[in-house]
């Protein structure tokens, strides 16, 4: 399940980047959080004014995705990142960590995906990274770096914390264990019920047989008592 969730998060980032790239970026109000990108200063239309005099600045797809990834991590704890080789960085915040750099080098060797569970800040995360190639919409911003259409630009990665899944798995295991315990308890109670009923039935049969024997013995004694006068009379005649 975690793997499917990871792919879903990644595909969300991919779809957003594809949309932004297909439009060549978007214009947003320039402010402290989104100042004009100095890497786009070579573009004559980097900054524009609206008819009301409001300044808008162009956000390229990577700029948009990075900001969205930061917001998404704060809201849901899922880490997303666009990175590339250190000598090709536009933004120092995209510097690859050792795991990401290893993944980037594997893309140079033809690999199209790296996924594994690794520790981030001593907590397990399921990480996925796939290569990012230069498309038509990328040339406007990255053409000055010498990139050509189809070149490996870097990679898009995502890291999902494993803790919620582990907690969910443990909760599921507890629920299953409790269910099995209750089931075994029910089976035990049923077995105990049938056992006690069988014992009671056997005791009832034994008591019935005992009562029958006692009754037969009592009847035999009564008959013997009834015969005693006859026996004495016969014995008297014999003695005479």
Short description:
With 240 residues, this protein is an alpha+beta fold. It contains five helices and seven strands, in the order αβββαβαββαβα.
Notes on the structure:
This protein is of the alpha+beta class and 240 residues long. It has 5 helices and 7 strands. A hairpin with a 5-residue loop joins strand 2 and strand 3 (55-59). Helix 1 packs antiparallel against helix 2 (61-76). The radius of gyration is 44 Å and the shape is rod-shaped.
**Radius of gyration, in angstroms, nearest whole number:** 44 Å
Please bin the fraction of helical residues.
55-70%
**Proportion of beta-strand residues:** 15-25%
H/E topology pattern: HEEEHEHEEHEH
Which outline best applies?
rod-shaped
What would the average pLDDT be, to the nearest integer?
Answer: 82
Q: Strand order, main sheet: write it out.
A: 4-7-6-5
Number of strands: 7
How far from one another are the termini? 111 Å
Which regions contain 5 or more consecutive residues with pLDDT less than 50?
A: none
Number of helices: 5
SSE-based structural type: alpha+beta
Q: How many strands, which pairing sense, and closed or not: the largest β-sheet?
A: 4 strands, antiparallel
Question: Which helices and strands, and how do they pair?
Answer:
Layout: H1 2-22, E1 26-29, E2 47-49, E3 55-59, H2 61-76, E4 79-83, H3 98-108, E5 114-120, E6 123-133, H4 136-142, E7 152-161, H5 163-239
Antiparallel strand pairs: 1-3, 2-3, 4-7, 5-6, 6-7
Supply the key terms.
240 residues; 19% strand
């Amino acid at each position: 399940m975690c793997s499917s969730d990871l792919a879903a998060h990644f595909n969300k980032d991919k779809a957003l980047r594809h949309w932004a790239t297909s439009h060549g970026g978007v214009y947003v109000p320039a402010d402290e959080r989104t100042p004009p990108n100095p890497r786009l200063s070579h573009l004559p239309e980097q900054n524009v004014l609206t008819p009301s005099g409001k300044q808008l600045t162009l956000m390229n797809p990577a700029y948009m995705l990075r900001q969205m990834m930061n917001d998404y991590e704060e809201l849901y704890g899922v880490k997303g990142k666009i990175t590339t080789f250190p000598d090709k960085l536009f933004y120092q915040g995209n510097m690859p960590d050792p795991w990401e750099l290893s993944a980037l080098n594997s893309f140079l060797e033809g690999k199209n995906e790296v996924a594994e569970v690794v520790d981030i800040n001593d907590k397990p995360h399921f990480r996925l990274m796939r290569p990012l190639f230069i498309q038509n919409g990328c040339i406007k911003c990255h053409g000055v770096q010498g990139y050509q259409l189809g070149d490996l630009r870097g990679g898009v990665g995502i890291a999902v914390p494993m803790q919620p899944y582990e907690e969910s798995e443990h909760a599921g295991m507890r629920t299953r264990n409790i269910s099995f315990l209750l089931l075994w308890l029910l089976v035990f109670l049923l077995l105990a019920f049938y056992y006690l009923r069988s014992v009671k039935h056997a005791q009832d049969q034994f008591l019935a047989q005992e009562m029958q024997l006692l009754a037969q013995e009592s009847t035999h004694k009564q008959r013997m008592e009834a015969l005693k006068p006859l026996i004495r009379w016969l014995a008297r005649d014999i003695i005479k």
